[in-house]
Amino acid sequence: MLSTATVLVMAVADLGQATQSRPETAPVFQQSGSGGFGGIGGGGNFGNDMFSLPEGASVAKSKNCVIVIPAEGKRLFAYSMPKGRWSSVEMKGDRSEKIVPILGSDSAAVINGQTVYAYSPAGGQWDLIVVREGEIPRPAVSQYIQMQIGSQLFLFGGEAARWGGVDLKTGQEAPINRD
């Protein structure tokens, strides 16, 4: 697993020149304006593709998907490399100041307030889970997404592209809150 510092170094190297040494699974993040991921963005080299982002827009990519967070509006977009198509989801509630994308090789999560949007490139679709007020959403992303809330463990990934959960205390299926 790559550390944040390693990914930052790779992303900075990508801004200056195209690198062949970056592993195919290492996510790259570009955000417009200052701040964000080490202040990277506004133009420069995203992988080997040159383009500029409008203020407030973000793009993140990994081996199997590209996540786009437009500067305005309430939709998130993802492109599945295996499926060769775009998919979008409308964000619930207010758009927060910081919308955080987290990518693994075969899944992606986007946090907006108490909602975690999950994307599966294999399934080519989104699903969401709303975390109770007072809980902090902390998804771990790799080939799949896992997140523990209290005694409940939630997983997302694969072609099904749906959240599923189990209560680790009772052994019962955990309900998925999508409201």
What report would you give on this structure?
The protein is built from 1 helix and 15 strands; from the N terminus they run H-E-E-E-E-E-E-E-E-E-E-E-E-E-E-E. A 5-stranded antiparallel β-sheet has the order 1-4-5-6-7. Strands 8-9-10-11 form a 4-stranded antiparallel β-sheet, with no helix packed on it. A 4-stranded antiparallel β-sheet has the order 12-13-14-15, with no helix packed on it. Helix content is 7%, strand content 37%. By secondary structure, the protein is mostly beta strands.
Counting helices, strands and paired strands, the structural category is: mainly beta
Uncertain runs: 1-27, 32-48
- Global mean pLDDT: 77
The biggest sheet amounts to: 5 strands, antiparallel
Please count the helical segments.
1
Q: What are the secondary-structure elements, in order, as H or E?
A: HEEEEEEEEEEEEEEE
Order of strands across the main sheet: 1-4-5-6-7
Shape: globular
Portion of residues within helices: under 10%
Draw up the topology in text:
Layout: H1 4-16, E1 28-31, E2 45-46, E3 49-50, E4 58-61, E5 65-69, E6 75-80, E7 85-90, E8 100-103, E9 108-112, E10 115-120, E11 125-130, E12 140-141, E13 145-149, E14 152-156, E15 164-167
Antiparallel strand pairs: 1-4, 2-3, 4-5, 5-6, 6-7, 8-9, 9-10, 10-11, 12-13, 13-14, 14-15
